[in-house]
């Protein structure tokens, strides 16, 4: 690997064996980060492209609508305009896409937006059995509303959606539009061969033998699992003074019986195949004996995050082995990490 584009991800804290990655990033030929912070990862970048502040960014609730308990839609325009020297996050990403694809930085971001919009509209119109087969593609593209490519893309999705809405409708209803109670859609959306929710697909069933073989061996002294605090999202919120401290701290949860048996008081040394770290201990009966837990995203050192750098936290991914992956998904194994725990002091 010669180059890296990192989008708002603090990989040194959130990827397996973070310290190894921290040592490797300076060896890249080029690294660019889209991030508002100079943190443990972005400090290695050749270029940092800061996105605008939240109040300068329009918002549509794609994520929240997945988990809401009522059907609604809402669009929030930017409350504060961009400065003359600022670029929207969408324009930054469009420019990076054009450069990475070989088009060059001279090509305007609108060219990528228009290409995507043409493919989306054309694909919906030309899809076999499409209820929009009689739509004039060129006219649709010309009449799209929005101040940017992403807003026009949203207008496309609304116009082709089930409710016949437009971006103008959402702008006219700044508090949102109530579309009624949620409706069952499982049968409509389920695409398994059997037509049912397959709780035991063949790939998982075939992997059970490997799982049993693993647990047939000697059990580790402890298994390390992760956790998230209410006021902590990944590594992002530790630089906000009002959100750190109190219950939002980085401690090793351990069952009181285990702590007493090992003679652990205030601090402990946790060691895995990948590394070791010292951490403050919190005894709690809420965790099982034989299991310890560290929160994700802590261990801020080396960046310029004034508040985050003062927190007494450790990087849990110092203990996560980057050579161990889940056999089926290829994903890193962040939970169930074999560790040993020793008293300090």
Automatic annotation (TrEMBL):
> This chain belongs to which protein, by name?
Molybdopterin dinucleotide binding domain-containing protein
Entry annotated with the keyword Oxidoreductase: yes
Q: Give any Pfam family that matches.
A: Molydop_binding
**Keyword Oxidoreductase in record:** yes
Q: What's the source species for this entry?
A: Actinokineospora soli
Record keywords: Oxidoreductase
Where is each Molybdopterin dinucleotide-binding domain found? 222-337
């Amino acid at each position: 690997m010669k180059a890296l584009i990192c989008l708002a991800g603090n990989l040194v804290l959130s990827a397996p064996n973070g310290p190894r990655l921290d040592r490797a990033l300076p060896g890249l030929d080029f690294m660019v980060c889209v991030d508002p912070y100079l943190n443990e990862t972005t400090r290695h970048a050749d270029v940092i492209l800061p996105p605008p502040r939240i109040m300068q960014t329009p918002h549509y609730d794609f994520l929240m609508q997945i988990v809401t308990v009522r059907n609604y839609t809402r669009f929030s325009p930017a409350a504060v305009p961009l400065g003359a020297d600022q670029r929207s996050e969408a324009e930054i990403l469009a420019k990076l896409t054009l450069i990475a694809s070989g088009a060059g930085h001279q090509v305007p971001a609108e060219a990528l937006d228009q290409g995507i919009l043409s493919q989306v509209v054309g694909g919906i119109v030309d899809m076999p059995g499409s209820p929009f087969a009689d739509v004039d593609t060129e006219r649709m593209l010309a009449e799209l509303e929005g101040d940017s490519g992403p807003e026009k893309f949203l207008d496309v999705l609304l116009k082709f959606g089930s409710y016949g809405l437009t971006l103008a409708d959402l702008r006219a209803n700044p508090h949102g539009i109530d579309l009624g109670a949620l409706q069952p859609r499982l049968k409509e959306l389920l695409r398994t061969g059997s037509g049912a929710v397959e709780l035991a697909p063949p790939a998982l069933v075939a992997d059970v033998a490997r799982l049993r073989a693993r647990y047939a061996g000697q059990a580790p002294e402890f298994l390390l699992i992760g956790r998230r605090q209410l006021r902590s999202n990944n590594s992002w919120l530790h630089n906000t003074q009002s959100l750190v401290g109190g219950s939002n701290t980085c401690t090793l949860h351990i069952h009181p019986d285990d702590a007493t048996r090992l003679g652990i008081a205030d601090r402990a040394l946790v060691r895995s195949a990948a590394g070791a770290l010292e951490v403050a201990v919190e005894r709690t009966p809420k965790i099982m004996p034989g299991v310890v837990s560290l929160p994700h995203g802590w261990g801020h050192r080396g960046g310029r995050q004034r508040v985050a750098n003062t927190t007494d936290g450790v990087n849990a991914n110092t203990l996560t082995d980057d050579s161990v992956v889940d056999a089926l998904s290829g994903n890193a194994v962040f939970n169930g990490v074999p560790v040993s725990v020793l008293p300090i002091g």
